[in-house]
User: What shape does this take?
Amino acid sequence: MEAIDVWAQITTPRMAQQPWLAPLLRWTGQSEASLAQTPAETVAEMDAAGVSMALLSAWYGPAGALISNDEVRAQMDAAPARFRGLASADLTDPMRAVRELRDCLQDERFVGVRMVPWLWDLPPNDRRYYPVYAACIDAGVPFCTQIGHTGPLRRSETGRLIPYLEDVMLDFPELTVVGGHVGFPWLDELMTMSIKFPNFHVDTSAYALARLPPAFVQWMKGPGAGRAMFGSNWPMLSPARCLAGLDQLGLDDEQRAAFLAGNARRVFTRLAGAAP
Assistant: This one.
């Protein structure tokens, strides 16, 4: 079956050196040097796991661009059939952020926008995000974010779904949202949100599938069958390491196909023209 990795990045040296990465490096047995992967090395890891396409994220925070949109463009240029991009921008200047996102999204290879709330220490209902949500709706692309606890050395509160992300989805009913990193420990909130909002989706990035919480797996087989997507968080975890537990989930063929690629192709509408 086709597989699309909806959360990956090719890290830059300035991102790999961030002090808040220390616990992730410890948990995953990585080092700063091991994060310095090239596009060719990333494609090789995708091939080893049977992943046909990865969505590479730009990262912007208060210290500036850790992975810039231009760097993501260059990464996509290195493997045009295998990579698509998620744009980002500097929230400290909302109108400049909107203009940068609009410029990026003129390139159809950028299929969405990603902002990581813990990096800004701003929950997603902060007013500075709101022009970004409007830009996503205008362009017809999803807004991708992180939900659940924060692995890096930053506060986890920004990853709570209720009230922060719920406020956003009430204020912007047209906005499609993809929450990354499963949402643990607030899985009851995740299930409530997925029932309440048909445009709310979740990816499994940062988790090896064999280690998904049982309640999340049960959700994937029920209300989440059309909402869950595969993500790795490469290079923190390789796609092969994440997918090794796929058979243990007990998904039927239809659920499995939707999880691996079908839901991503439906939600990231710009993937429609990308060959599997």
Summary: Strands lie at 4-8, 53-57, 59-61, 64-67, 83-87, 110-114, 143-146, 177-180, 200-203, 228-229. The domain at 4-273 is CATH 3.20.20.140 (TIM Barrel). The mean pLDDT is 95.
